[in-house]
Amino acid sequence: MTRTDTPTGIPSLPGLGTTWYERGARYWLRRAFSTLFLLAVPAFFCYIALRLCQGAPRSDMPPGVRRVWDVTMVIASCATFARGWVGQRRALRRQLLDPPTPDAFLAAKRAEAGRARYWSRACLIPLLLAAPVLPAVAAWCVGRLLAVLTVRAYPSEVGARRWMEVHKGQIRTG
Predict the structure, then answer these.
(1) What pLDDT score was predicted for residue 174?
(2) How far apart are the first and last CA of the chain?
(3) How many secondary structure helices (H) and strands (E) does the chain include?
(4) Cα–Cα distances in Å, from 11 out to 50, 95, 102, 107?
(5) Which of 19, 88, 142, 148 would staple 26 via disulfide (CB 3.0–4.6 Å)?
């Protein structure tokens, strides 16, 4: 049995299982749990970014320059948060126009997981070198993540619904 060939014929999606089909209490509980878990990661990232930013570059600045730096960093963080939000919403809109089938979604998730491991290692040293602007980078990441977490339906759900409509006659409704 593949992930898209469950006994009920409802494709199982990563993180949502088959709860996406009826969108009942279990679905919203899973979405809330994943949101809380995924918000813990950027909260930690933002904390580290702020701690690194308060370190050597900022502490060596004279008070007047430090104030200008802080205001600039707040403005840059707000701008990158908005840019991350808008960019992710546009990407989601493009995905909703042509949502993936359940099998294509699973294949993309597997490929993405392998690449993410290498990107995280490759970005560690440049990230530490970018400590003075790390709050802006963190704001961009938070903007993208919040844009994903606040959509009404994930593209994978839309793709699975379309897949089910196409394969309605072939599904066993045990």
Answers:
(1) 40
(2) 15
(3) 7, 0
(4) 42, 18, 7, 14
(5) 19
Whether pTM exceeds 0.85: no
Between 113 and 81, whose confidence is greater? 81
Read off the amino acid at residue 169.
G
Token pair for 79: 């701008």
Burial grade of 17 (CB within 10 A; 0-12, 13-18, 19 or more): middle
Cβ neighbours for 126, distance < 8 A, ≥ 6 positions apart = none
Three-class SS of residue 155? helix
Q: Cα dist. 7→2, 10, 12, 53 in Å?
A: 10, 8, 11, 53
What is the distance between the alpha carbons of residues 116 and 105, in angstroms, rounded to a whole number? 16
Per the CB < 8 A criterion, the answer to whether 164 and 10 are in contact is yes
The tokens describing 49, both together, are 């970014």
Cβ neighbors of 49 (< 8 A, separation 6 or more) are 131, 134, 135, 137, 138
